[in-house]
């Protein structure tokens, strides 16, 4: 029985390593783009993304100085939205101060073309604000970033590998005690 499980385990290990390498390649080939803007009160800045249909964009945004939180953070809100090639708003995060590392803003390009990021300093306190913008463009499958599918595939292959490995070790241990 163990002899037959060895080739299956090797195949699963090969799949696991292949998916791991593909995941590393995906992260290295789609780096995070980081930009910083200093906006005077009532100033607007625009940035453009040239996207193809189906691409997924994850956006991290912060206007807060380091260590700032609580009520004083309300003074740092900005107007933030993204328009598609037809000038239709596809993402509106007006009143945003910051996004968490694990909870980025995101959208999927419904058509190919130039998408415009709009950042306006018209809300909150009437002072200069520094906006940190980071974004990452990846391919998607049904609107879900391909990395998530790869992570799921990685987990789906890791579980059988662990089961086969533990079962093999358990059987070898019972065979030696006899």
- DSSP summary: helix tally: 2
Helical coverage, percent range = 25-40%
Q: Termini separation (Å)?
A: 17 Å
- H-E order: HEEEEEEEEEH
DSSP, total strands: 9
Number of domains: 1
Strand content: 25-35%
Overall outline: elongated
Spans of at least 5 consecutive residues whose pLDDT stays below 50 are none
Question: Class, according to the CATH hierarchy?
Answer: Mainly Beta
CATH topology: Jelly Rolls
On the 0 to 100 scale, the average pLDDT is 82
CATH architecture grouping: Sandwich
Instruction: Specify the biggest β-sheet.
Output: 5 strands, antiparallel
Would you write up a description of this structure?
The model has no long low-confidence stretch (mean pLDDT 82). Helix content is 34%, strand content 33%. Strands 1, 3, 6, 8 and 9 form a five-stranded antiparallel β-sheet that branches. It has one domain: Jelly Rolls (Sandwich). The chain has helices at 2-29, 146-177, and strands spanning 33-39, 44-51, 55-62, 79-83, 89-92, 105-108, 113-120, 129-141, 144-145. The chain starts with a helix and ends with a helix. The protein has 178 residues and is α+β, with helices and mostly antiparallel strands. Helix 1 (2-29) runs antiparallel to helix 2 (146-177).
């Amino acid at each position: 029985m163990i002899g037959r499980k060895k080739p299956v385990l090797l195949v699963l290990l090969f799949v696991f390593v292949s998916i791991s390498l593909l995941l590393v390649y995906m992260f290295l080939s789609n780096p995070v783009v980081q930009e910083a803007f200093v906006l005077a009160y009532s100033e607007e800045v625009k940035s453009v993304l040239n996207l193809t249909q189906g691409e997924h964009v994850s956006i991290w945004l912060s206007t807060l100085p380091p260590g700032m939180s609580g009520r004083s953070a309300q003074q740092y809100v900005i107007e933030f939205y993204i328009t598609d090639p037809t000038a239709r708003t596809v993402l509106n995060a007006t009143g945003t101060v910051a996004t968490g590392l694990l909870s980025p803003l995101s959208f999927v390009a419904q058509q190919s073309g130039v998408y415009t990021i709009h950042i306006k300093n018209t809300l909150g306190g009437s002072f200069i604000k520094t906006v940190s913008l980071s974004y990452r463009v990846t391919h998607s499958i049904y609107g879900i970033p391909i990395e998530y599918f790869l992570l799921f595939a990685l987990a789906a292959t890791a579980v059988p590998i662990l089961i086969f490995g533990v079962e093999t070790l358990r059987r070898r241990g019972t065979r030696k005690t006899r």
